[in-house]
């Protein structure tokens, strides 16, 4: 079996985000073999390619290059995408920049209970929820669908990603004080 | 520009959003001092929230408590500072504001239909063998429906009214000074007898603290939770 | 416009054979430009690639490499044994209580695109799609198999069918839909 080729076919046919772990299990190969194959495909589907390979945490999907959407829409109908409320937008932003993140961590940043909003985002398929052995609570991360709607193929392309992602404020109060005092 | 109009017709996504709006309205930077300066309008807004569910109110109350602690500390610098590290409202607010700012950028991207990336939609071929998904049952189906209906419920927006009339600490101080002119001693219980809201009680207490700070009065309280007696110096 | 990249995006999303002449016309470029771009793509989608570019007379299409079919089918089969996601379950619920229903109607209620989910439910055999003279678009309803899995013989036997079917909140969404479609 040519793993790169099979993986490419599976991603092409699936039409939706797939779990890298599950792919490895289903194809009965090791996780690192799948990861190597993904690296090979990343070389094929470069930035200027008409098809992008989007990898977000454990999820992977082939999608069209968002820069070509204007032309693509001459051939297919546009997708339905409902606007987000202010609270949903804020929560989605925190998850995008700080995910994987637990609910109390999100609430710590927003200063307000987020249970209902997270549930709505979850069911609209904009965030993923999963159990993580490192945390006792479920953690949340942005879905590839949300990335598609935002028109970026890599989460690090989000505005100010690096600084907001790595800003450790609130995660550790001591560090926070150190950061502030050196500024 | 139209700041004043905005704050009255705005829907707040939470207590931090409200705090930011109040600071923006006064064109103030985020600091412990500026935050404690908007304590009264914040409390007044809370007062207008009385009808809202306890769950939603509690998040606002947490922030209100922090604001009151900040405020009382600014009035009584000698207050026990053990809990100082636990407030950090200004830092929380600064981080929150960064997320709000970047969320506006994401919103623009979200609304830009021309940038949505598409998946490949494979031609539909029905499976030869149809299996029942484990969680497909009458129970899960009706539960899912109930949840959906809950979601479709129009959101109970927080009241958009923003009460203009704020009982300020200054007004209270003036009133107390007047009463102290007439009587040498005034009971705190009596001071708040006519209070029409919880906010007014809190503001009255803050006014008392302010008067102590200004060395205008001394307090006497014989037992915990007992009445407080104010007397002019 | 990068014709190679745009063409690749269009073929990737279209999922069906497209006429080369029509592509040239839609993109407002010459036939030879499209042909040159196709040549470039043929170099990318080689024989061992998981995706093949098939050109037949005037028609062109991206398809999965037939050599990988066995693995792709195995993967898809394993996927179907899994739980329905919350989003799939909700879509199925809307189809169950509101069917026969069109895709835009479902999307309007759920507030999110349902194309991929509906496709998955169709493949899993849980919903049926058919053309209906009353609607211009295909309509969806629960399949006989799905009813069998639920242990009911008729859709009206679903819990609280009457009240949920005609729920005001869902009816409101329908009105919104009508307003939107007249714009």
Jot down its keywords:
heterotrimer, A: 183 residues, alpha+beta, 6 strands, B: 233 residues, mainly alpha, three-stranded antiparallel β-sheet, 3 strands, elongated
TL;DR?
The complex is a heterotrimer, with two copies of chain A (183 residues) and one copy of chain B (233 residues). Chain A has 183 residues and is of the alpha+beta class.
Structure characterization notes:
The complex is a heterotrimer, with 2 copies of chain A (183 residues) and 1 copy of chain B (233 residues). By secondary structure, chain A is of the alpha+beta class. Chain A is built from 10 helices and 6 strands, in the order H-E-H-H-E-E-H-H-E-H-H-E-E-H-H-H. Chain A has helices at residues 3-14, 20-27, 31-44, 69-72, 86-98, 103-110, 115-123, 144-150, 161-166, 173-182; strands at 18-19, 51-56, 59-64, 101-102, 127-130, 139-142. A 3-stranded antiparallel sheet of chain A has the order 1-3-2. In chain A, strand 2 (51-56) and strand 3 form a beta hairpin. Chain A is globular and about 50 Å long. Chain A starts with a helix and ends with a helix. By secondary structure, chain B is mostly helical. Chain B has 11 helices and 3 strands, in the order αααααααααβααββ. Chain B has helices at residues 3-8, 15-25, 32-37, 39-48, 54-75, 84-87, 89-111, 138-152, 169-182, 188-191, 198-213; strands spanning 185-187, 217-221, 228-232. A 3-stranded antiparallel sheet of chain B has the order 1-3-2. In chain B, strand 2 (217-221) and strand 3 (228-232) form a beta hairpin. Chains in contact: A-B, A-C, B-C.
């Amino acid at each position: 079996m040519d793993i790169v080729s099979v993986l490419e076919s599976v991603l092409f046919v699936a039409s939706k985000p797939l779990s890298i772990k599950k792919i490895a299990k289903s194809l009965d190969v090791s996780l690192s073999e799948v990861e190597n194959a993904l690296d090979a495909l990343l070389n094929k589907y470069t930035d200027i390619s008409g098809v992008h390979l989007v990898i977000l945490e454990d999820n992977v999907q082939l999608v069209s290059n968002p820069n070509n959407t204007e032309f693509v829409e001459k051939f297919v109908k546009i997708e339905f995408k409902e606007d987000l409320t202010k609270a949903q937008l804020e929560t989605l932003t925190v998850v995008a920049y700080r995910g994987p993140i637990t609910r109390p961590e999100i609430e710590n940043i927003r200063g307000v209970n987020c249970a209902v909003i997270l549930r709505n985002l979850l069911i609209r398929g904009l965030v993923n929820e999963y159990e993580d052995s490192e945390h006792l609570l479920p953690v949340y991360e942005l879905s590839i669908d949300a990335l598609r709607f935002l028109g970026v193929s890599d989460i690090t392309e989000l505005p100010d990603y690096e600084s907001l992602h790595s800003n450790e404020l609130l995660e550790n109060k001591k560090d926070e004080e150190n950061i502030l005092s050196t500024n | 520009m139209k700041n004043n109009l905005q704050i009255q017709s705005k829907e707040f996504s939470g207590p931090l959003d409200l705090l930011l709006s109040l600071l923006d309205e006064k064109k103030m930077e985020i600091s412990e001092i500026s935050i404690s300066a908007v304590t009264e309008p914040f409390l007044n807004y809370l007062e207008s929230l009385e009808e809202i569910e306890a769950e939603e109110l509690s998040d606002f109350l947490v922030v209100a408590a922090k604001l009151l602690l900040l405020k009382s500390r600014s009035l009584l610098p000698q207050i026990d500072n053990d809990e100082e590290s636990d407030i950090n409202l200004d830092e929380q607010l600064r981080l929150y504001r960064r997320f709000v700012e970047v969320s506006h950028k994401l919103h623009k991207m979200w609304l830009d239909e021309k940038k949505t990336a598409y998946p490949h939609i494979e031609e539909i071929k029905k499976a030869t063998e149809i299996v029942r998904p484990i969680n497909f049952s009458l129970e899960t189906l009706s539960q899912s429906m109930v949840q959906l209906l809950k979601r479709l419920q129009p959101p109970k927006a927080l009241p958009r009214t923003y009460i203009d009339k704020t009982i300020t600490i200054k007004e209270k101080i003036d009133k107390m000074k007047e009463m102290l002119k007439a009587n040498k001693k005034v009971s705190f219980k009596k001071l708040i007898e006519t209070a029409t809201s919880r906010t007014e009680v809190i503001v009255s207490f803050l006014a008392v603290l302010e008067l102590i700070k200004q060395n205008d009065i001394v307090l006497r309280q014989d037992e915990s939770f007992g009445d407080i007696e104010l007397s002019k110096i």
